[in-house]
Design brief:
- By secondary structure, the protein is of the alpha+beta class.
- It contains 3 helices and 6 strands.
- The strands form 2 sheets. A 4-stranded antiparallel beta sheet has the order 3-4-5-6, covered by helices on one side. Strands 1-2 form a two-stranded antiparallel ribbon.
- β5 and β6 form a beta hairpin.
């Protein structure tokens, strides 16, 4: 495969740069189903459950917890194509970066089906 450069973007002969991938369509999907807001809400639901069900671990990981010191950022939004090449089981996956007391502590990943329903989620501590 031959690679060429267009400005700062490396691409292949199929010209898969920005617009060729339907980024606008993904952004519209995220907005239509309120996935950013739902991802933040999903984080808090999961995080609160972790706090209640794993008190000792939670205290060790988030010593002296104060919710005002949590900062959430959308880290990535991606289209995951599964069951390649049939493309029969696809998702939008959003990763939320979590900072606590100014330090990157964990990330929360939520998986949405293409009808906007939540399929899975998990919290990964660093």
């Amino acid at each position: 495969m031959v690679f060429t450069y267009f400005g700062r973007h490396k691409t292949n002969k199929y010209n898969l740069v920005g617009a060729a991938m339907d980024i606008k369509g993904i952004k519209e999907f995220v907005a239509k189903y309120s996935l950013e807001e739902r991802s933040f809400k999903g984080f808090w639901d999961y995080f609160n459950m972790y706090q209640k069900e794993h008190k000792d671990d939670f205290e060790k990981d988030f010593n002296g917890f104060n919710s005002k010191e949590i900062e959430l950022f959308i880290d990535t939004v991606s289209l995951r194509i599964t069951n390649w090449p049939e493309e029969g089981y696809n998702h939008i996956v959003i990763s939320v970066r979590v900072h606590y007391k100014g330090k990157y502590m964990c990330y929360y990943t939520i998986v949405f089906a293409l009808n906007g329903e939540v399929e899975d989620d998990h919290l990964s501590l660093l």
